[in-house]
Each structure stands twice: as structure tokens, then as C-alpha cells.
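Entry:
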Amino acid sequence: MSNYDELIQQRNLLDRQIVELLEKEKQVAIAQVKLIIEKYHLVASDLFSKKGSVSAFIKKVPVKYRNPKTGETWTGRGKAPLWIAGHHRDDFLIK
């Protein structure tokens, strides 16, 4: 069985090999990507448009409560507005 120092040396060797291999594979990937970009005349906005952003996946929550005096609304998420604080929420439910 290996002792501690031998295992540390093996780990260090593996870490170096991993870094070297990753760098080689990264260079190959970059070359492939460059060829595809040139072939299809791609620009940054083709790849990184805002259409696929996180905000596109956020669903709007329907309004659940309405202030009858002002018409203000609240979905029931987050901090409660002042007009509903201290009151029974069922009184403000949108039916």
C-alpha cells in the first residue's frame, strides 16, 4: 500500500496532467468553434441574444389581491404592501 507522500505525489502528477489535457482539448474546441463561426457568418448576438435570458423563463404570477380604494394590486408574493398590512387578506381577494 502507498504511503501518504507517495499519494500526494501521484495526486500532483494527476493534477498537472489534467490541466495539460484540459488546455489541449480547449484549444481544439476553440478551433472548431472558430470554423463554425466563419462557416455560418455568426456574430455574438446570434449566440448570446437576450431572447434566451433567465427573465424569459420567469413566469408572471397572477394578481391575487386588490386595494379597493386605489386599485393597487399585489400577487401575494414578497413583502406585503402597507395597504394590506394589519388587515385580513381575504377582504382584499380578487374574485
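The CA atoms of residues 43 and 90 lie 53 Å apart.
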